[in-house]
Amino acid sequence: MIITLGTLGVVFIIFIISFRSGDLIQTLVANSASISDGILKIYPPAILAVKGLTNGSFIDILLFLLLSISVFALFVLIFNKSFKSISARLQESYKRANYKLKEMKSSSQLMALFKKEIKRYFASPIYVVNTII
Question: Which of 11, 15, 81, 123 sits most deeply, having the most CB atoms within 10 A of its CB?
Fold first, then answer.
């Protein structure tokens, strides 16, 4: 359900952007300085990438790549130590010991097949999205 709604939201946003593409490009060009300042505040090493691309400095681009790869490698090394315990905890399941069988409902064959097909239909977000679009 969440995937279906998310996909429909993305399709809707794409439609809006495609109808307003002229305004969007003009707005992006007009605000390019503030956008780049925001990116540089969030990820300061991007300054090296900007300098490398604007000045044609291979050394700045190389430093940017090395810094980005080293941060990623550091994250992998730290996460690697705790991965097995996190994975084991995620795969654990607990069952209630005091399970009691309640009243079972029955329906006709036609209704049972209908319910089964509806569950199968909504279990596949691709079918639902393709039907709606």
Answer: 11
Q: Which residue has the tokens 């006709």?
A: 108
Q: pLDDT tens digits for 35-56? A: 888 888 888 888 888 888 888 8
Measured CA to CA, the distance from residue 55 to residue 94 in angstroms comes to 59
Q: Each residue of 78-100: pLDDT tens digit? A: 888 888 888 888 887 777 677 77
Per DSSP, the three-state class of 95 is coil
Distance CA 132, CA 4 (A): 10
Q: Report how far residue 46's alpha carbon sits from residue 61's, in angstroms, rounded to the nearest whole number.
A: 10
- Report helix angle 125-132 to 109-123, nearest 10: 90
The crossing angle, in degrees rounded to 10, of helices 2-19 and 21-30 is 80
User: Nearest-CA neighbor of 49 among 37, 65, 34, 36?
Assistant: 65
| Per-domain residue ranges of the chain | 2-82+106-132
